[in-house]
């Protein structure tokens, strides 16, 4: 697991070396010298050049980017088949973000580790993902290959998200806003579409009662068939007429 904020993911009272070695204690049978050798190798792999020194250091002595590299080294310590990265770059500034994403891609190629990347950043999705699962209020609403998703988004939530990205091309256009708020999962109705209250211009009879996943195109799944008739209010050109835009 790669956590969001490396400052809170690391133990402030333990050295970096100790923290990378800890999972090896639970999952691998290695001598102390082999553990150290492996830890130094992992530090080099994640792009830390002065690994001997960093091995002895504490988290507060490192920069944010270095700390996130250490968190990645811990995650890789036992050769995982799958990495779960929860917003791994949110706490970092933009240049460091790009370095960490490049590092993850490089390691994925070298180590053949799968990555499930959780993010709100559609730029990161476009850059990193092969396949995208869009979730809304705890439910999967769309699944597609990344290119297909950006070129042909179908679910109203996916389309609303993509429509909300500011773009230079639309300098004079009003920015699309998804009205309302994300519902509390605790108080959610178990029936009906969870996104319906946020597209209140869609008439009641047009909502699928209990939307299910449908295969709209090969390998492209979407919850609800309403994508066929969905429109944004700004696309409406007359009574029952609209120009369909996908993004
Ligand atoms: S039309 Fe379908 S996806 Fe859209 S809000 Fe209604 S049920 Fe949900």
Outline of the structure:
The protein has nine helices and eight strands.
Instruction: Give the rounded overall mean pLDDT.
Output: 89
**Intertermini distance:** 33 Å
Number of helical elements = 9
How many strand elements? Answer: 8
CATH homologous superfamily placement of the largest domain: P-loop containing nucleotide triphosphate hydrolases
Q: Spatial order of the strands in the main sheet? A: 3-4-6-5
H/E element order: HHHHHEHEHEEHHEEEE
| Alpha carbon gyration radius | 22 Å
Gross morphology? elongated
Structural class: alpha+beta
Bound molecules: iron/sulfur cluster
Helix content: 25-40%
Which runs of at least 5 residues are low in confidence (pLDDT < 50)? Answer: none
Query: Biggest β-sheet: count, sense, barrel?
Result: 4 strands, antiparallel
Textual characterization of the structure:
The chain has 247 residues and is an alpha+beta fold. The protein folds into two domains: 6-128, Rossmann fold; 131-242, no CATH class. The chain is 36% helix and 15% strand. The protein has helices spanning 6-9, 16-27, 32-45, 51-56, 64-76, 94-111, 122-128, 146-151, 156-163; strands spanning 82-86, 114-118, 131-136, 139-145, 213-217, 220-223, 236-238, 241-242. The strands form three sheets. A four-stranded antiparallel β-sheet has the order 3-4-6-5. Strands 1-2 form a two-stranded parallel sheet. β7 and β8 form a beta hairpin. The longest helix has 18 residues, at 94-111. It binds iron/sulfur cluster (SF4). Residues 156, 193, 195-196, 199, 202, 206-208, 211, 224, 226, 230 line the site of iron/sulfur cluster (SF4).
